[in-house]
Amino acid sequence: MSNNNAAVVEIAQTASKFASSIVLHSDTKYIDVKSILGLFTTLVGGKNYELHVHGPDADEAKKELLEVFEKHGLTVSLATE
Questions:
Q1: Taking phi first (over 0 means left), then psi (-120 to 50 degrees means alpha), and beta for anything else, what does residue 73 get?
Q2: Which pLDDT score, from 0 to 100, does residue 81 have?
Q3: Rama region for 77: left / alpha / beta (φ>0; ψ in -120 to 50; rest)
Q4: CB-based contact 72:9 (threshold 8 Å)
Q5: In what order do the strands lie in the sheet with 21-26?
Q6: Is there a contact between 23 and 32 (Cβ–Cβ < 8 Å)?
Q7: Where is 75: in which H helix or E strand?
Q8: What is the pLDDT of residue 10?
Q9: What pTM does this model have?
Q10: CA atoms within 13 A on the CB side of 43
Q11: How far apart are CA 2 and CA 5, in angstroms?
């Protein structure tokens, strides 16, 4: 579980650097990626997540967040508009 904790903290910290709205879609839930609590209750390995990023620095946010998800072995895809 500690590995998951590290993933949650790093994802939230990375997301918080950006002005863009960053939301993770999983099943029927939409979670603000900047919310550590929201991530803790949602983020588990083996699930597929969809990342929705909108805002002035969306491209950079997508790039950095995809790297963090991949680093922690989490499967995420970018939502298409």
A1: left
A2: 65
A3: beta
A4: no
A5: 29-32, 21-26, 48-54, 75-78
A6: yes
A7: strand 75-78
A8: 96
A9: 0.87
A10: 31
A11: 5
DSSP letter at 19 equals: S
Does domain 2-78 sit in CATH 3.30.1340.10? yes
Q: To which H or E segment does residue 65 belong?
A: helix 58-71
CB 8 within 8 A of CB 40: yes
Q: Cα(75)–Cα(64) distance, rounded to whole angstroms? A: 14
> pLDDT per residue over 2-56, tens digit each?
578 899 999 999 999 999 999 999 888 899 999 998 888 887 666 788 999 999 9
CB 53 within 8 A of CB 61: yes
HSE-up (13 A, CA, CB side) for residue 49: 26
